[in-house]
Amino acid sequence: MMTIGALLSATSVGAQEMVLQTGDGGVLAMVKQRCERLQSTVRQVHTDDSLLRVNAGQVYNRLSGQLMARLNSRLALNRIDSTAFVEVSGRLDGHRGEFAKKHTAYDIDMTELSNIDCKTRPAEFYAGLVKVRDSRKEVASIMASMNRAVKEYQAAVEQLKSRLAGTATQEQHHAH
Amino acid sequence: MRIKALINKYKFPAFLIGVVSLAVVLVGISMRIYYVSGAFQLDLSRPEYEPVRSRIDQAAKKHNEFPTQGELTPQALDDFLSQYAPEADKVTSSNGFADDSLSNAQLGLDKGR
User: Fold this and answer.
1) Fewest C-beta in 10 Å: which of A46, A48, A120, B74?
2) What is the CB neighbour count within 10 angstroms for residue B108?
3) How far is CA A117 from the centre of its chain?
């Protein structure tokens, strides 16, 4: 365990604690044993996540810039109360900035993990893996917040649509 | 003075050295901006992403923008939703970064295994 402590001197306290909790070092032995497979999986996840980042980023950009912002101005032009719409789209914009930052941090952690040789430095690799899991969780959490905002906006539009349809029906009845 | 004399004597080599040095400095600045701005993370033209490049969603670039002018009727909102809902589904239906692909169990690091 002394060696593990020395190897982890450069990693975060949380990650070190996680490794030390592994007790008998059984996990570290497995890291060493499955090193090549682990490195290949890490590389694959990194690649898939980069692709996901690009595709999701494009979708959020489109939803925010080409759809939400434009509907918000159309609502304002039609003098319809757009407070809720503006609030939700503003929230999504804030989250987008946060998402980019969190993903950058995750990508750096992932790159660092990919550069660790798990055969010669299994403890450091495992500590890096724990750190990557944490930063990936943060990206997932901010993405969940963005998705909540996306759904809220859709629900608000559907609600407005029913309201406008109801008003139109009432006007038709009055006309008859 | 000595440098000036040397430059005057070897004009063409001095010109080449100057141009190459300038190019190196400009490339250094560009690379710095490329990494610092985060463009690096979004750049799937890097060689390691060659196998997944075909999976980049190109459809996002082909959409029309929702018009900002005009009366807002239920039909207009239907039109909006017909563009919005499929896009929203792309992000809300996926598990995103929340899957457990890096868990001990997935990586085969469980003690019992």
Assistant:
1) A120
2) 13
3) 27
**Do residue A158 and residue B73 have CB atoms under 8 angstroms apart?**
no
A80: nearest Cα among A170, A161, A153, A175: A161
Q: Which of A158, A153, A146 is nearest to A72 (CA)?
A: A153
For B36-70, the pLDDT digits (tens) are: 877 777 777 887 777 777 777 776 666 778 899 99
Contact status of B36 with chain A (Cβ, < 8 Å): no
Residue A132 identity: V
Rounded Cα–Cα distance for residues A33 and A39 (Å): 12
Radius of gyration from C-alpha coordinates of chain A:
24
A18: its two tokens: 């996680």
Whole-angstrom Cα distance, residue B36 to residue B44? 17
Quickly list DSSP for A98-136. Answer: HHHHHHHHHHHHHHHHHTS-TTT-HHHHHHHHHHHHHHH
- Measured between CA atoms, how close is B25 to chain A, in angstroms? 25
Please name the residue that has the structure tokens 């909790």.
Answer: A21
What is the rounded distance in angstroms from the CA atom of residue A146 to the CA atom of residue B88? 10
Residue A4's closest CA among A86, A95, A126? A126
In this predicted structure, the answer to whether residue A42 has a pLDDT above a threshold of 90 is yes
How far apart CA A77 and CA A51 sit, in angstroms, is 38
pTM: 0.77
Shortest distance between the Cα of A86 and any Cα of chain B, in A, equals 15
Residue A109 contacts residue A11 (beta carbons within 8 Å): no
